[in-house]
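Researcher: Batch entry, complex prediction.
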Amino acid sequence: MPELPEVETIRRQLAPVVEGRRLKRVEVLDPRWSAPLLPQELTEAVQGRRVQQLQRRGKYLLWRLSGDLTLVQHLRMSGAILCEPAPETRHVRVRIELSRRRGASGAAACSRLVVTDPRRFGTAQLLFGETALERFFAQRLGLEPFHPDFTTEHLWRLTRGRTAPVKAFLLDQRRVAGVGNIYADEALFTAKLHPRMPAGRLTRAQCAALREAVIDALQAGIDAKGASIEDFRHVDGVAGSFQDRFQVHLREGEPCVVCGSEIVKMVVGGRGTYVCERCQRPPRVASPRQPRARSGR
DNA sequence: AGGTCGGCCTGGCAGC
DNA sequence: TGCTGCCAGGCCGACC
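Model: Structure tokens for the complex:
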């Protein structure tokens, strides 16, 4: 499922294809994709506009169009954007035809795209102007992990007072943008933190380790061109390779790469979670009523 | 107000 | 074999 590295991979591959070209024709086959706009309304608003830039914020893909309009697309669980001729022809939700580009070769010559999405969770919405865009992301997304302001101090302050498990904290896009289930598991393993540890109990040193582990996991994901465990594909239909580098995710019953003990699966924050409980020590259960052993007398 | 849970949706797979 | 039912999960809204 597309998390930050997968969306960034798509963006890097698609930007040279779409930037500078016009959306000649956009056909929305699934009304859920454009809701609450009707397919026809979205089509009429974007057709004929030039794609000035393809950007990413968190797991969102931003089509910056001429006339100050932005198509904010989210692939959710199973969305993909493929260049035609597409290797996958089922579950097509949107067809996009681009204006012709003279002298282009290879992928950049592609003039037809399809958005496929088996589970139909993917969405798109239109935002007009910079203010609307800023407001949209201000209420949904925290800092990008690669942003220079994403410091240990920032993470430490964010976690203060939080009783939710650190994994739930990481998955909350309003705290940190772009981390999903895969990279949360991997980062917590690298930082040697148990996913159930209450976020507010992290020490400064642990925040420093977590910050570094999150950045490293996401960067490794980008370097491997994403992880393909379900439907994620590149724009040419090729799979990413980060799934081959998982240290804990989806490795239930297998030995830990560090200590050899068995990786266990549990549910944290409502998500399937993979842990080496020897490397990632479970938090001490806070039991306020536990009778204290008295000393003396 | 922070935290948790259910709904959205479909493919894949376990179990009969 | 074929059917049923359950599970996965990002995000959002409802609820406690």
